[in-house]
Here is the input.
Amino acid sequence: MKKILSIVMVMAVMLISSLTVVKTASAEELKMTGTITKIELAADGKSATAVLKDSKTEASVTITITDDLTLDKFKDKRIVEGDEIRTKYEKSGDTNTSKMFKKTAGC
Amino acid sequence: MSGRIVAIVLGCAMLATTVQAKDHPGKEQILKDGYQGPKTCETCHPGKAREFLGTVHWKHASKVDHVDNINPNEEYGMKNRIYTMCNGNDIVNNLKEVPPNALGKTKFTGCNTCHPGDHTSDVGSTGSEAEQSIDCLICHSFKYDFSKRKAVKTKDGKIVMTQDRSTEAAANIGKPTIKNCMVCHEAAGGGAMIKRGFSMAKEAEVHVSKGIICVDCHQVKNHKFPTGRDPNNWAHDGIYMTCVGECHSAKPHGDAAYNKHTDKIACQTCHIPKTGGAFSKDFTKWEKQANGFYEPSTLKREVNETTPVYSWYNLTVSNTPQFIGPKGSRTDGKSKIYPFKIFQGKAYFNKKDGQLMSMDFAPPIATGDTLAGVASAAKILGIKDYEPVPGWQTIYFGSNHQVTPKNKALNCANCHAVNGVLNFKELGYSIKEVEKLTNPELYFEKLLKQQQENE
Here is the structure.
């Protein structure tokens, strides 16, 4: 009985582990260059969403930004609507979370 | 940390807070009268606009006396230098509108985009019109609306940089914050943190984490900025700075063994173990972007991904078309070991005289045609006799920012273990000396004790 219980427990652990891996693997990292058509800062200032029009496909993609450096750039308008952005983001379900969000222009 | 340093750090932290919290004297007057540019500032600070026109921030150049193969009577800087991190300068890449690309899109670009004038009064300009064109607030305002600073074409075809001269921006002023500095200094070299590859976020820089800001170390006198001695940063305001001064003594460690190193090892060597940014670029081959414009091919890393190389440096610079980097040796009595980011860039050299050529970026941005960029730059510079051939240049960038907390600085074993970061042989030590320098006897007891304390 103890042996069967052990096997069942091991299988349960394996199942949970594999589900976790599947969930992690489902978060896909994508990159794009696009023009900002809309920026919305959250009321608490701790996050924002930016809608980018993909330069290649012209599709609109909404990206959530949470890093302080980029949020600060939204607040003092170093990044504004109309700016062209190069971004890497993680797509998980319907949410695209920014991993990098930089203006394409240097000097 | 000594009591004095604690007091200075606390003072800086309080000042940093106070700078933004306390109103600048004259705020009421500015709110009442509005802001009319530098002449408003000069009501209380007479002569400051004229003074600023004589600085590197305005001239983008100065006389240079520590670099090989240049004319000591000429001025050098981003105004006119040619090297492969940028391959252009304010002259050949003067702010302009790029020709339409294949998609019909155009944009403004230029090395002097960050010049704090309005472009009508440009790099190195003088006179009252230049004085009144200074964008004082981009450095001094906490509420600068950066969307108001952009290149626009006037009806008569001139390209002008607009400024935020709002009363709100003018009423919220003081010493420059980190943001005021980094808005230009992080964007150099073709994008955010590309050129020097350091971050001034509090997570990345121990001074910033303690509330210290750029101008606490770069203590400005009459708009002249003290600078360090990066081999690739030539222009200066005539004032140099080091870590040793108000905050740190020449023997700053509690541990005498570490203090023994400071005559020969620069502070940065142990305290800046990583930087990042671009480490190689190819200006002869531009990549097409999704927006239809082209950019130079660039290999880059995040700000904490590049391990420096270490060289002796006596604060003078070797400068040839193929190499810009530190001079010095173990035996010259002047050198210390410093950390550097090595950058290698490919661009066109003139086969006729061996000199590196510069590039006007407008043609290759639009079409990818790099030789058209070289031809345009040659025309601007009046060079007629040339034959462009691709070649590489190596540049040593000083690692002078992104100081790590002391518990993450290099310790004895990081250098003295056999696989340590210092290549003693290349630094000029004999095989016997290297054996001594990499003997665990040097560090074993000390590190074992530290390890036991931490366990």
The interface with chain A takes residues 107, 109-111, 113-114, 143-148, 179, 183, 187-192, 194, 201, 289-292 of chain B (CB under 8 Å).
